[in-house]
Design a protein that fits this description.
The chain is α+β, with helices and mostly antiparallel strands. The protein has three helices and six strands, in the order E-E-E-H-E-H-H-E-E. The radius of gyration is 15 Å and the shape is globular.
């Protein structure tokens, strides 16, 4: 295994993310991805559609370096509406598992007043660590 999930004993188990991840290997840093598709068009106006596309973008960029979703060690989500994020917890979780799978790295979510691209409602930064060859 290339990484180890860090969950201190006695702490409540986080839902959908890890408290920490320890990893060794080649690092891949991905700039914030919004819900643009390959033509530069937003996938939709809603949080779930844009998050799905942003996560797909992350997977596509990972593949450019031979990395996969299970190599993700950190995701930072920037959302323009905290309540919309909380209200969409179930469909966001389903979307996440659809694109990333059952891999839950360390994650943070932050509400921001706006994103740079008009119409964007979520931006996701990612860090992956690809294991060194055996």
């Amino acid at each position: 295994m290339s990484h180890r999930i860090l969950q201190p004993s006695g702490w409540p188990r986080p839902r959908g993310y890890a408290n920490g991840v320890s990893a060794r290997g080649r690092q891949v840093h991905i700039a914030g991805q919004i819900g643009w598709n390959e033509t530069g068009t937003l996938a939709g106006n809603d949080l779930v559609s844009q998050a799905r596309q942003a996560l797909r973008n992350i997977v596509t960029i990972l593949a450019e370096d031979g990395a996969r979703p299970e190599h993700l060690v950190r995701l930072t989500w920037y959302v323009v509406d905290r309540q919309a994020y909380l209200d969409a917890a179930k469909p966001l979780g389903e979307t996440y598992r659809e694109v990333i799978g059952a891999h839950f790295p360390a994650m943070s979510a932050v509400e921001v007043s706006a994103l740079m691209e008009p119409g964007a409602v979520v931006e996701i930064e990612a860090t992956a660590v690809v294991p060194d060859p055996a």
